[in-house]
Amino acid sequence: MTWSDPEKLKRVKDFGISGIAFCVARESGSGKLFFGNSDFKVYEVDALAEKPEPAAFEAEGHQSYVTGIVQNQTQLVSGSYDGNLIWWDSESKKPTRTVKAHERWIRNVTASPDGSIVASVADDMVGKLWDAKSGETMHTLKDHKEETPDHYPSMLYAGAFSPDGKWLATADKVGHIAVWEVASGKKAAELESPGMYTWDPRARRHSIGGIRSVAFSHDSKLLAAGGIGKIGNIDHLGGPSRVEIFDWQKGESLHVIEDNELKGLVEQIEFDPSGNWLLAAGGDHGGFVSFYSVETGKLIKQDKAPMHVHQLAMNDDSTGFFAVGHGKIAHYEFKSDHPPGPAEPPLPEDAA
Question: Which of 39, 152, 167, 246 has the most CB atoms in a 10 Å sphere around its CB?
Answer without folding.
Answer: 246
